[in-house]
Amino acid sequence: MSSTVTYKIENEIAIVTMNNPPANQFSEALINDFISAFEHLHEEKLRVVVLTGTNQFFQAGVDISMLGNVETKEKGLEFCDVCQKITNLVATMPCPVIAMVNGVALGGGSELIAACDIRVASKDAKFGLPEVGWGVYPGAGGTKRIPALIGPGKAKMLMFSGKTLTADEALEIGLVDEVVEAGSLLDSTMTLATMIARQSPSAVRGVKMAIDKGLHVSLEEALAIERDGLGELVTTGDLLEGSAAFAERRKPVYEVK
Question: Least enclosed by CB within 10 Å: which of 19, 62, 127, 211?
Fold first, then answer.
């Protein structure tokens, strides 16, 4: 049986594709394949990860038929643990993860993009959090990550109402970072991924760490995280390589460490 999640790595950029027709919903197979793929990617030396879907769907949330088996509190907790594991595997990738949103991203799909570092969407993409209509609410980190992106008021509006947003509406409130025509989505995303990949991977990982950790602590603690991270960064040798390349008028050569 073919995997519902595949990835290819070229020039230390991984492209991860979810392919579970018709709507890329989180079935048992997609859940297991997704976790397996990202656990392997955590062990790879990568500069950027790009996450996308197939056809008109990025990821349309959980397969509703699975919710019928969640009949007790214990099963509810177990299911939530699995959902949070999926998004945590994305959020804790050491390198940047770009969501290349090719189409519909509902429920867990919108939670999944919130776990990514950058979100580039096709103009045809749709977003929404309709879980309350099913008698549940977002449980894959969405109640934390989405308010952090768009503010608590807008997050509550989306989660209370189940409203669906167009790509332009998602851009306006900050749920995505860039909207492009469908035909240029791949080129635009890979141009960005390549631009990031040219930089010092240690510095890029360091700034990701500093931002992610600094968002949830006081200014004093955030400054300490920034300072300690820069101290560690000096030990990688990338600063010396960058300085030497500048002095010698050449492009720096950085390795993923």
Answer: 211
- In sequence order, the 6+-apart residues with CB closer than 8 A to the CB of 191 are none
How far is residue 131's CA from residue 160's CA, in Å, rounded to a whole number? Answer: 9
Active-site residue flag, 10? no
CA 160 to chain centre: 23
Domains identified in the chain and CATH numbers: 5-197 (3.90.226.10), 201-247 (1.10.12)
Q: For residues 84 and 73, give the distance between their C-alpha atoms in angstroms, rounded to a whole number.
A: 16
Q: What is the pLDDT of residue 56?
A: 94
CA distance 44 to 40: 7
Helix, strand, or coil (residue 180): strand
CA 255 to CA 16: how far, in whole Å?
A: 22
Catalytic residue flag (residue 111):
yes
Pick the catalytic residue from 131, 169, 241, 255: 131
**List 74, 111, 181, 255, catalytic entry:** 111
Proportion of the chain above pLDDT 70, given as a percent: 99
Output the pLDDT for position 71. Answer: 83
Question: Per residue in 169-217, pLDDT tens?
Answer: 999 999 999 999 999 999 999 999 999 999 999 999 999 999 999 998 9
- pLDDT classification of 65: cutoffs 50, 70, 90: confident
